[in-house]
Amino acid sequence: MLELKHIGYDVSENGQDKEILRDISLTVSEGELLVFTGPNGGGKTTLARVIMGLAQPTRGQIIWNGQDITNASITERARLGISYGFQQPPRFKGLTVRDLLNVAAGDKPLSKDKCCAYLTQVGLCANDYLEREVDTSLSGGEVKRIEIATVLARNAKLMIFDEPEAGIDLWSFARLTDTFAALHGRSDAAMIIISHQERIISLADRVIVVGDGQLLHSGKPDEILPEILSDTRAGCPVLERGGV
Ligand SMILES: Nc1ncnc2c1ncn2[C@@H]1O[C@H](COP(=O)(O)OP(=O)(O)OP(=O)(O)O)[C@@H](O)[C@H]1O
Ligand SMILES: [Mg+2]
Question: Fewer CB under 10 Å: which end of the chain, C or N?
């Protein structure tokens, strides 16, 4: 369904090229739930941005159902069925939650019941939120959950969620993991979830550890989780050398 071939992404920093992604090759199958995890700064969000078309890879090719989309715009990719929920979602002054859900769903306006169903999936009550503006009056966790609801409303073939757990309380997080599990069970849509949470990692068909701009490990949750836990127990190389 989605194929990344030798993706590289460089940025220019102080006049020098810095390699953020290095030779990443990956295939995502229909209906697959993939979790990207790994250290801060490892390249997970950049990889998601490259898939969505928010960043243009320096090297490599992106194939979507046999079509080369390496140079396709974000709008074109969205039309083809790829959808992305930001790690830090933007706010939209002047637009209500209902507006955003309608824009996401496309074609015809959603009924209140349908809006309510999407909001319930992320633990929000439509009566309280539907007519609220998505401005600074909403809390960080509320904006994050509204963003996730808009990704769900897009009905995409590939949904990418960037740290959906970030800033979300435990009750809503439990609701959200149930939503991901149910979606995975009943739909042929693929999901890439970027997450540090054991509970989300354990839902995955495949977990990929992204670090230093590369895919470091890949496997089933029960193979990868012990590796992650042993990694986090390893010492800090700087401290082990005896100070900075
Ligand atoms: N435009 C840019 N210019 C310079 N450095 C960049 C740029 N974009 C990304 N980076 C760097 O690339 C690395 C990967 O960033 P990225 O946001 O993809 O990490 P991440 O794995 O999502 O981390 P986190 O878990 O903290 O969200 C970081 O070191 C970041 O500072
Ligand atoms: Mg990130």
Answer: C
